[in-house]
Amino acid sequence: MVLAIAVLSFILVGHNAISAADNAAEDRQERFAARHLAAEIANLPVQQRSATVWDEAVIRTRERDVQWMDVNLGAWMQSYFGHGESYVLDAADQPYFASVGGERRAPEVFADRAGLTAPLLAQLRAEMAEASAGDDDPNEALAELAAVAALRFDDGVAIVSVVPVISDTGETAQAPGTESVHVAVRYVDAQLARQTGNPIELEQVAFQDGPPESGWAGIPVTDPSGAAIAWMVWQPERPGWDLLMRVLPVLLACGAVIAGLLWWVLHHLRRVSAQLAASELRLQQSQRLEAVGQLSGGVAHDFNNLLMVIIGNIETIRDTLPPDHPLRRHADD
Q1: Is the dihedral of CA 181, 182, 188, 194 positive or negative?
Q2: Separation in Å, CA 178 to CA 75, 88, 93
Q3: Please, what's the largest Cα pairwise distance for the chain?
Q4: What's the distance, CA 155 to chain centroid?
């Protein structure tokens, strides 16, 4: 009973320790994943600025040089950074360049994105107007502005980033409010999952629509309202369980040795107990025989005393009878 309680206590304590280690590891991974995903999202405008904060970009977009925009603001960004779509909008947020999947498209395809991206464009325009107010050279401040959010389109969830097309030297003048803007659409796909998860060694990381299933970990991708529109999920690290799997063969071997030792001890104790029981039985039988012998000896001694008296009296009677007396024969017998 004591052994069973000890084993159960060991199992309970071990289970609690393993669960605590695994939960702590999962929480740590979720924190790291959230920071890395936020960094990847924040890096999207940085990628855009590699071509949008540039005097030539201001000049070429002002001239509506579609071929130049296709090479520098469309296909190149999509192939190099993994963007899915690129658009350039004028000061009234009307598109005059569009590239989808590395191919130039009619600017009108932006109509499918206009409704959901309108709040981002309004946010950026307001911040640009505030940065330009009362500043004779607002380019440096404008170059740092961006409006970024996760949005759900009909064909999937994407990170949308909007930045202004600004001169990097300030030599190419633009009147405040006349700047074009560049819109980049980066879908939450397998490539983004790898970029986010590989640096922190997440296993089987991917994006999906719903929350993670049992046994998986995940963090939500939220839209501007805070609603989860996608989840990044992965197979969580389980150091406690992994350690158990590594030491389990040793534990099983030790358990087998202990079980064998206990069996030998119990078997030996049962055999000794049986021998002691047999010895006790023999002792009890010997004691009973000894008691019977003592009783028989006492009875025989007392009976012998009676016989001696009887024999003595008969001999006396015989000696007093004449040889020819009729009772002499009976006395002799």
Answers
A1: negative
A2: 25, 13, 10
A3: 181
A4: 32
Q: Decide if 142 contacts 158 (C-beta within 8 A).
A: no
Q: What is the Cα–Cα distance from 85 to 219, expressed in whole angstroms?
A: 25
Chain position carrying tokens 């009887």: 310
Residue 118 CA to residue 97 CA, distance in Å, equals 17
Distance separating alpha carbons of residues 1 and 8, to the nearest angstrom: 11
| Model confidence at 27: pLDDT above 60 | yes
Of the candidates 179, 186, 117, the residue with the CA atom closest to the CA atom of residue 142: 179
pLDDT higher than threshold 80 for residue 31: yes
Q: Which of 163, 161, 156, 84 is nearest to 117 (CA)?
A: 161
The pTM is what? 0.70
Q: d(Cα 311, Cα 299) in Å, to the nearest integer?
A: 18
Closest to 215 measured CA to CA, from 230, 204, 207: 204
Average model confidence (pLDDT) across the chain? 86
What is d(CA 243, CA 251) in angstroms, rounded to the nearest whole number? 12
CA distances (Å), origin 194, targets 34, 47, 94, 184, 190: 14, 18, 34, 20, 6
Q: Bigger pLDDT: 275 or 247?
A: 275
Q: What are the structure tokens assigned to 149, written together? A: 């959010």
3-state secondary structure of 201: coil
How far is 15 from 200, CA to CA, in rounded Å?
27
Provide the edge-to-edge strand list for the sheet that holds 85-89: 103-105, 95-100, 85-89, 181-187, 156-164, 147-153
Query: Rounded to whole angstroms, how far apart are CA atoms 166 and 49?
Result: 9
Q: What contacts 137, CB < 8 A, 6 or more positions away?
A: 170
